[in-house]
Known about the structure:
This protein is mainly α. Helix content is about 65%, strand content about 0%.
Amino acid sequence: xxxxxxxxxxxxxxxxxxxxxxxxxxxxxxxxxxxxxxxxxxxxxxxxxxxxxxxxxxxxxxxxxxxxxxxxxxxxxxxxxxxxxxxxxxxxxxxxxxxxxxxxxxxxxxxxxxxxxxxxxxxxxxxxxxxxxxxxxxxxxxxxxxxxxxxxxxxxxxxxxxxxxxxxxxxxxxxxxxxxxxxxxxxxxxxxxxxxxxxxxxxxxxxxxxxxxxxxxxxxxxxxxxxxxxxxxxxxxxxxxxxxxxxxxxxxxxxxxxxxxxxxxxxx
Length: 268
């Protein structure tokens, strides 16, 4: 005869109960707290690096009345970009660890970084067109103002260094934060249009200091943010916006380099 004795149930450990892990929802997994902590890393690392650098420069120029002021030195590319690079590196590392530890995903998977096949590379010329169209707004509202960012492009070394940073590093980090994290958090709660507009407003706001608060230039960057947001929302991928952003920055720096003869001849 077959043994019809029912199998013994697995005893429940009252001290270490088995708690089922809820499945991670599809799509970008980020929540509001992820954004808060990420922004704290960005701002905190920038502040800390700036403070340490300022202290080091103050110690270096102490007792030398002919030395430039610390505030002037901090605005130079050779000091400003290393600070931003360290901040960006810490931010990417934090987001990477959040994706791996909290969500058990790779960074690119959590950011919804995926190809669209042959259509993917169409976003590079779209970024070039976006750069050309966006510059129509400042042309319609000409000004003789000199923007703070222009002071950083004062010689070929600073110009080409800024170009490298703006084309090869900044697009990924900015897209990661604004369209990879902020956008899906807003979209999940309020929908596509508020996510596009909200991320575009925040994207334009981080450039306000570089442009001295000039409204036409900020309006152009806002429209760029809208285009990048729609690319993210309609494609369901971060990659198209990254390609557009990279091509956009490359086009602007190429135009500046051509107009200034390789960052050598700046109007005064």
